[in-house]
Amino acid sequence: ESVLSGDGDQPGTPVGHLHMHRGVGSALVTKKQLVDTLIRVNHDPNHPRGPTEEELDAHRASLRAAVASGEAEAVASVKKARESISALESAERAATDAL
Q1: Which residues contact 18 (CB under 8 A, 6 or more apart)?
Q2: pLDDT (mean) for 82-88
Q3: What are the pLDDT digits (tens) for 27-61?
Q4: Residue 58, CA atoms < 13 Å, CB-side half-sphere
Q5: Torsion angle of the four alpha carbons 75, 80, 84, 90, in this order, in degrees rounded to the nearest 10
Q6: Which residues pair with 17 in a beta bridge?
Q7: What are the φ and ψ backbone dihedral angles of 50, each rounded to 5 degrees?
Q8: Of all residues in the chain, what percent carry a pLDDT higher than 90?
Q9: What does the H/E/C string look like for 18-62?
Q10: Of 17 and 74, the one with more pLDDT
Q11: How far apart are CA 97 and CA 29, in angstroms?
């Protein structure tokens, strides 16, 4: 886990060491750097963002449609398999009767 300590209220005063969970290294972070980074991330149109509610709704609708389509295909496949089994059973009965 990452750990931040210190208050960084004075300009240039470290907020604390950000210890990497793998112990690879650490970085000094000031409060101003944190604020600047947050502003840049939140207002940068090129920065990756989470999906909007509309995008989530569209994705859910797409998944529901895919499930419905898959269910329809499964039902058709089962129906075709039953017809094949029935045809084989009929052929078997006819062969048995012919003997």
Answers
A1: 2, 3, 4, 26, 27, 29
A2: 94
A3: 555 677 777 777 666 666 666 667 778 888 888 88
A4: 5
A5: 80
A6: 28
A7: -75, 165
A8: 22
A9: EECCCCCCEEEEEHHHHHHHHHHHHHCCCCCCCCCHHHHHHHHHH
A10: 74
A11: 89
Encoding tokens for residue 91? 């052929």
Among 21-25, 37-41, 48-52, 77-81, the range scoring the smallest mean pLDDT is 21-25
2 and 19 Cβ atoms separated by less than 8 Å: yes
Q: DSSP letter string over 3-22? A: -------STT-EEEEEE-TT
- Round to whole Å and give the CA distance between 1 and 20: 7
CA distances in angstroms from 80 to 31, 75, 76, 85, 90, listed in the order given = 67, 9, 6, 9, 15
